[in-house]
Write a sequence for this structure.
């Protein structure tokens, strides 16, 4: 099935959707550095991206016209307008690209769409605008008139929605905040995922059931000890057992019977060469970067727990967020390759640019394996219809 992706960035969502079985007809991204990353991987003959048609341009200037049907539209509209770490301007921010995402739905009429954004989009201060976004996706052909502001258009959409007699292009839309760690990603990344399925298809869809849990990890670490054995951690190097083990033993046991343990930073990166060894130079994007420090509100990711959310930063990478606390207590920045592992990019996928630029691309990306999980679930929903 064919897909079109907008706001592609460095390609995490596109990688996952490709692995799920979708064929990309177009990837639209205005940022040159991100496009250079994809083109670099094509030049290196990475088969996963070899046939990606990349359009380096502003999505506002892109014409959604194809000679083939488009089954899926996907993308991550810029999150800065709604990010907790941004300026919180929301719909007033010039970087708000949801109107373009809705235009793409209207013009392509795909069988389904999937959009990803920051959890901040769902907070109270943006709640009404978030409902406005969802209703526009429900009824993409009910277009705002030039003399209307968005609140007036919202009222029009609400009347359509409650009347229940609308016969135009319509999508059944759901949204949910997902934690990437619950799907085997070694990162506690929380993102809102918006999915719509065209109403005339009469297909049912729900979010994939979580496969991993924190409780199962704690059971693995502190009840059975299998985590430490599996990762070959000597007893003398293991952290002190938490005081609440006995109090939570039954709950952790129940979770362990139903889910796998959350994946940790150790499990994601420990097999990579030491960052200052000669071997590290043989690994793409695995160069040491000094100067890391912890300060209040910005602490590094624990080694035996999923990483904190990797961030891009409005003015560069935040000082403490993209660091790791090693078992000996030392703190250092993640290398680009380690950050790519945490975002589940394959090892043969190279990030273009200096450390700050590559980390910006990764901080904005969708974890590739989370995208594959969601894409596979959606593929099976809309195939053969």
């Amino acid at each position: 099935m064919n897909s079109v992706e907008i706001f592609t960035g460095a390609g995490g969502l596109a990688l996952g959707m490709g692995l799920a079985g979708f064929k990309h007809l177009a990837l639209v991204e205005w940022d040159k550095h991100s496009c250079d990353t994809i083109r670099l991987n094509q030049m290196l003959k990475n088969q996963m991206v070899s046939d990606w048609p990349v359009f380096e341009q502003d999505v506002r200037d892109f014409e959604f016209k194809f000679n083939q049907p488009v089954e899926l539209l996907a993308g991550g509209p810029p999150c800065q307008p709604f990010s907790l770490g941004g300026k919180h301007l929301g719909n007033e921010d010039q970087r708000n690209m949801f109107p373009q995402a809705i235009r793409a739905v209207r013009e392509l009429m795909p069988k389904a769409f999937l959009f990803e954004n920051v959890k901040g989009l769902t907070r109270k201060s943006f709640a009404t605008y978030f409902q406005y976004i969802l209703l526009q996706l429900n009824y993409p052909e009910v277009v705002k008139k030039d003399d209307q502001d968005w609140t007036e258009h919202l009222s029009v959409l609400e009347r359509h929605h409650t009347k229940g007699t609308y016969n135009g292009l319509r999508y059944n839309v759901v949204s949910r905040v997902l934690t990437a760690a619950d799907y085997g990603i070694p990162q506690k990344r929380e993102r809102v995922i918006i999915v719509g399925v065209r109403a005339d298809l009469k297909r049912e869809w729900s979010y994939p059931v979580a496969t991993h849990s924190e409780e199962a990890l704690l059971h693995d670490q502190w009840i059975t000890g299998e985590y430490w054995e599996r990762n070959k951690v000597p007893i003398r190097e293991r952290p002190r057992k938490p005081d609440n083990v006995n109090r939570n033993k039954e709950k952790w046991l129940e979770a362990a019977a139903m889910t796998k343990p959350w994946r940790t930073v150790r499990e994601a990166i420990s097999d990579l060469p030491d960052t200052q060894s000669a071997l590290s130079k043989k690994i793409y994007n695995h160069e040491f970067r000094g100067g890391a420090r912890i300060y209040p509100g910005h602490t590094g990711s624990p080694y035996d727990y999923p990483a904190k959310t990797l961030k891009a930063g409005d003015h560069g990478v935040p000082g403490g967020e993209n660091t790791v606390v090693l078992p000996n207590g030392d703190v250092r920045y993640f290398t680009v390759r380690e950050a790519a592992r945490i975002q589940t990019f394959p090892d043969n996928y190279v990030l273009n640019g200096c450390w700050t630029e590559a980390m910006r691309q990764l901080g904005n990306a969708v974890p590739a394996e989370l995208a594959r999980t969601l894409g596979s679930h959606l593929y099976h929903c809309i195939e053969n219809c």
